[in-house]
Design brief:
Oligomer: single chain
Order of helices and strands: EHHEEHHHEHEEEEEEHEHHHHHEEH
Shape: elongated
CATH architecture of the largest domain: 3-Layer(aba) Sandwich
Radius of gyration: 28 Å
Helix content: 40-55%
């Protein structure tokens, strides 16, 4: 039996409502973590309700979704199951010694959940620059669970009114907080020091299918996506020469950060391979304003249609200026606003020419064609890199992966 404490404060164990609330929150957290783990295990691009290029896809496929190659959802599942187990031993009928252990574990887990939630929310807002609603629900459940635990937990010097035996925590709350901080900081340190390539880096390859490239000439035509997308090269927005040895098609969104990286890699590749390939630019906005496949537009994509229309308007006004405007849109570390994009477009082709080209039906027709072709393909992420006689690349490859694919699949040769 433990020695009596000087405190006369009585601790009444939480009633059945509070205990069941903690259990239900733990169970909900475990269930959601299990679902996200299942999504990862089956190599799905995103959970239900999250479309191509969504915040879910970007967050769950980023390097920050893993630690030492294992999904953080697995760790979350373990934490919630441990909390669920601990809630079974905090009732007044349990011996005080068992309650002490259960409460100590529960409070420690509550601190871990709060600190981990803060870390992963900061990553979403300031590093990945995308929000995963499923993840945010998971974090909200964790915060509610931690709050309930802190509200019901025994103070460091409290006693059971019915037994007179102490049920204070094995360690004080300060020690438990420091322990939790050490554990979460360890996770943070591992994620930073030992980065693991998320699935956003390991770009998928689609089956090659049937494709055609009629070769250089004024009527050069190619087909990709197993023939579902047919393009007349001289009548498309193009970066490079229409008579280049190879034609690469890029489906993208000007507001997509991964597309920005891939655009930069392709620009570097054209320099490395001395313009042996040209890039057909097919804006594919993830904005419900012009893409009926998007049911709810994320904040970061709310200007995607505007930027795509401006880019195509510049192309229609002066095809020779398109490559410069296209590069300018992606040169910034953050997406351009429609206002500054319009000012740059007017500088390149004049406001009168831009206004005239903006009214051409072909602009909206091209956007709808791109959106339809993408939705009909098996690609579920952007960017998508396509070319005849090459397995399509979906997602964001690393610079080295892209160079290797272009060299091996398209037979491009690096110049000395």
């Amino acid at each position: 039996m433990e020695p009596p404490l000087a405190s006369t404060e009585n601790f009444v164990p939480p009633g059945p409502i509070a205990r069941w609330l903690m259990r239900l929150l733990s169970l909900a957290g475990a269930g959601l973590a299990s679902y996200l783990l299942w999504v990862w295990w089956l190599d799905l691009d995103a959970p239900a309700g999250c479309g191509a290029g969504s915040g879910c896809a970007e967050v769950l496929n980023s390097r920050w979704s893993l630690v030492l190659g294992f999904p953080v959802s697995a760790a979350a599942l373990l934490v919630y199951l441990s909390a669920l187990l601990a809630t079974g031993f905090i009732a007044g009928r349990c011996p005080p010694a068992i309650q002490r252990i259960a409460w100590t574990c529960l409070v420690l887990l509550a601190f871990v959940i709060l600190l981990a939630a803060a870390w992963f929310m900061l990553l979403q807002y300031y590093v990945v620059d995308a929000i995963c609603p499923w993840c945010m629900v998971e974090h909200s459940i964790g915060v509610l669970l931690a709050g309930t635990v802190f509200w019901c937990m025994p103070r460091d010097k409290s006693i059971l009114s019915e037994s007179g035996m102490t049920v204070h925590l094995l360690w004080g709350r300060r020690k438990l907080l420091l322990t939790a901080m050490g554990g979460v900081l360890g996770l943070v340190g591992v994620q930073i020091a030992v980065p693991t390539s998320g699935r956003e880096q390991g770009a998928k390859r689609l089956s090659e299918g049937e494709s055609i490239d009629t070769g250089p000439g004024t009527d050069r035509r190619i087909s990709v996506l197993n023939g579902d997308l047919q393009l007349t090269i001289h009548d498309e927005p193009l970066v490079g020469s229409p008579d280049a040895r190879r034609i690469v098609v890029l489906m993208f969104d000007y507001c997509c950060p991964h597309c920005r990286d891939t655009h930069r890699f392709l620009t570097e590749a054209r320099e490395r391979f001395s313009d042996q390939f040209a890039v057909v630019a097919l804006p594919t906005p993830l904005d419900s304003d012009c893409n009926s496949n998007v049911t709810k537009t994320e904040t970061r994509f709310e200007h995607a249609c505007d930027l795509a229309r401006l880019a195509l308007a510049v192309w229609r006004a002066d095809p020779a200026r398109f490559a410069e405007f296209d590069r300018w849109l992606f040169d910034s570390s953050t997406q351009r606003t429609p206002t500054e994009a319009r000012a740059e477009a007017e500088r390149l082709v004049t406001s009168q020419a831009l206004s005239t080209s903006e009214t051409e039906p072909v602009i909206e027709e091209r956007i709808q064609r791109n959106v339809f072709a993408y939705s009909e393909s098996t690609a579920k992420r952007i960017p998508a890199i396509l070319s005849p006689d090459m397995k399509s690349i979906v997602g964001r490859p690393t610079r080295e992966q892209l160079f290797e694919i272009l060299r091996d699949d398209l037979g491009l040769q690096e110049q000395e």
